[in-house]
Q: What sequence folds into this?
């Protein structure tokens, strides 16, 4: 009887396949680096002239240094999410995984491999953007060395949740529902202004959003305002990713072997 547990070798084969596919279309991945840069150069820097400094954890920092780490967290989120849309195509239309199952790769290997690849794509976005903001002098703490590993946790959270979500979708129209969640979460997770501007009730809702925890984690690392709360951020994001991976493993197994 074949094991139904996800195996590292099976997941690595899925990752290898994705690398082979993207080696001729690498610009698709590279193009995702530009989105946070557009926000930074055409939105944040112009506004900084009017806003000046904002207060974060009792310290005054320039507006660009406040927003830049939030865009890094959002970049990791977007990288993972965009890859989940490809899983939808391969699962529902291209029927890619049916042929893969003719090999020793199992359905749960598919879930683990695609989740890992989505995290890799998230980290590629993040590494390029992190290098830019570091060169711009928007990183003010030695703790920032942990910012890239932190984007791994953020990418894992959204890869797990994103791939789990797409297994329930039947048509491309369903992505409108996800965008209805993703865009407001990006705008209102203390991305462009401190969470203290919200009424208390709304503030607690924002604190429950996964992107908020990602932003708080990266912002603390790049500004040096690191506290024990960052362990809560990591635990929240890791738990979301694990739950998503568990759901996507079971769903993909059910959809491919039905």
A:
């Amino acid at each position: 009887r074949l094991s139904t547990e996800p195996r590292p070798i099976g997941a690595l084969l899925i990752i290898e396949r994705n690398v082979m596919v993207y080696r001729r279309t690498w610009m698709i991945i590279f193009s995702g680096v530009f989105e946070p840069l557009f926000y930074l150069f055409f939105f944040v820097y112009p506004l900084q002239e009017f806003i000046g400094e904002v207060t974060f954890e009792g310290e005054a920092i320039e507006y660009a240094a406040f927003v830049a780490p939030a865009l890094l967290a959002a970049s990791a989120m977007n990288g993972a999410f965009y890859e989940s849309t490809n899983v939808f195509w391969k699962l529902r239309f291209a029927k890619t995984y049916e042929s893969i199952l003719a090999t020793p790769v199992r359905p749960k290997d598919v879930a683990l491999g695609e989740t890992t690849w989505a995290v890799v794509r998230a980290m590629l976005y993040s590494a390029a953007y992190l290098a830019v903001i570091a060169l711009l002098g928007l990183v003010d703490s030695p703790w920032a060395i942990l910012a890239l590993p932190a984007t791994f946790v953020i990418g894992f959270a959204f890869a797990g949740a994103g791939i789990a979500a797409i297994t329930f979708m039947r048509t491309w129209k369903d992505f409108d529902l996800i965008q209805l969640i993703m865009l407001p979460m990006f705008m209102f997770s203390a991305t462009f202004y401190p969470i203290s501007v919200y009424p208390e009730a709304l503030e607690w809702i924002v604190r429950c959003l996964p992107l908020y925890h990602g932003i708080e984690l990266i912002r603390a690392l790049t500004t040096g305002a690191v506290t024990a709360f960052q362990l809560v951020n990591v635990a929240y994001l890791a738990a979301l990713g694990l739950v998503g991976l568990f759901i996507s493993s079971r769903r993909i197994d059910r959809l491919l072997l039905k």
The beta strands are 53-56, 59-62. The mean pLDDT is 89. DSSP finds eleven helices and two strands in the chain. The CA atoms of residues 83 and 118 lie 5 Å apart.
